[in-house]
Hints:
The complex is a heterodimer. Chain A contains 10 helices and 8 strands. By secondary structure, chain A is an alpha/beta fold. Chain A folds into 2 domains: 1-30 and 255-291; 35-251, Rossmann fold. By secondary structure, chain B is mainly alpha-helical. Chain B has helices at residues 3-20, 28-62, 80-88, 102-135, 162-177, 186-232, 246-278. Chain B is extended, with a radius of gyration of 31 Å. Mean pLDDT of chain B is 82; it is low at 148-155. Classes of the chains: A alpha/beta, B mainly alpha. At the A-B interface, helix 2, helix 4, helix 7, helix 8 and helix 9 of A face helix 2, helix 4 and helix 6 of B.
Amino acid sequence: MGVFEKLMKLDRRWVFLFLVVVCVVTYYIDYDVPILPEDESRKLYDFIDSLPPGDIVFVAIDYDPNSMAELHPMTYAIVEDCWRRDLKVIITALSQNGPGMADQVIRDISDSMTVDRTYNGVEYKGREIANGIDYAFLGYKPYYTLVILGMGQDFRLPFPTDYYGTPIDSLPMMQGVINYDNIACVISLSSGTISDGWISYGQGRFGFPMFFGLTGVMTAQYYPYYGSGQLRGLMGGMLGAAQYESYADNPGRAMDAMKVQLPAHLVIIFFIIMGNIGYFASKSKKFEEVG
Amino acid sequence: MDFTTFLWATFGVFVTLATFSFLYKDNPFYKFAEHLVVGVSAGYFVIILWHNSLKPNLFARLADGDWFYLWLNSTQPWYLIPAIIGAMMWTRFSKDYAWVSRYPMAMYIGIATGMAIPLEMANRINKQLYATMQLVKIDTTDLSGYFFGYGGFNLLDISNGVSNMIVFVGMITALIYFFFSKAHTGWFGKMAKVGIWTLMIGFGASFGFTVMARISLFIQRIQDVDSWGRVALNAGVTPNPNYNNWYQLVFWALIVFVLGYIIREIMMFIKSKSVKAET
């Protein structure tokens, strides 16, 4: 049996094992991978950067725990960036398992906000984050299309109370905030068809500035909406999260993960090339045998 | 970190390893993790649905009424209508009255369709068509933009230049590939071939992103297991003063447990080899 035939019959578990070893080893090696900026993610950062303090950013946590690897770093980077700039944040979770993660994000970032930090040369003093003043967490409601449409009329229709059971009208930051007209933009961090809902029933119907943070699997599918101008910006997968962390000068899990992504991709490309060589070599050998 | 939090974090690591064990082969640990995630998701969803939806949106709005009068003296009694329509769905469980559920179902589908068709058409078809036509609108007063992107020569600038033409040609040829009313021969066949290449490039881009997504999932697990390991062995940058050495017992128990399973698998593998050799 030739090398290529052996290669074609290689148990796929060896490939898994090799990839695991590469990922784990490179995770513990300390080196930096350059994060190159891209227009689509840069536009989101520039938009947030252009907002005056006090403006409201709507962050929709439309993903489940199975996508948190890619989308959680985006949420952390964006929400902290907003709070450091004294922007207010309305948070919803239109995915059924999203509220717990949104609650975790709020608690974690509230903790880190108490510490003084310097990002991009600007010193931000630590401060306490208060529910109803810095953020309103509206929670989850089923049937996202109806919720997205309902919020265009009045946030109070689908969300009479916030996630913690407080009536929305009693939250200071929601005074006079009726619908999408009163917010600066919507950022949907999504791992499913909810993003389609935001395009059709949200941005398309009410015309607010819309940004997406998507899982890698979905990203290529949503580029046409960026090209057509329906999306103002777009972050794709862990690279998108790492780019935002890099713009915000706030290295987190995504930037840390990119040093593993690079060798893992190289390994996969190597296996693809070897697999193709093996395939064509064994095919030509069979062809020669047949005559 | 108290011991309870430590135990839950340890359990999380165990479930992670149990899930990845499927890459080797199906086993009871993987089955346990799989069933656990389905059960927990369903249970969590029910509770979230009650506290975030039914309670504030329905029962709280009727709560100023009185249970004994079926909330008819509520200030918002009309919320009983969606409640009744929703309850009608449950007749699916009765053989005799299952037909009742067709009315709320018909209403739901009718409303959803009425909302969806104009908005989907306008935003996911028409706007995409406009955008594609915009790509080939040539400004004859300044042709430089079609060959030079922002900040210099850039043939693949997404919003400008030659890439506009590539998108347009790619779209037309990909549509031709899916046009089966004419044989794919001659110039038509050649264009269909270009269409296949366009599709393959699209699939390639999706594949690249998918690889990144899958690797991301694994990296996140490595990060979690790593941070757990630092806590379990108190090996973080700033050691926890409340660390209890008994925590390590759980850590090593988990290691022994996993090693035990691996040894068992190796023994079974050797045994099966020797049985094969004998036969």
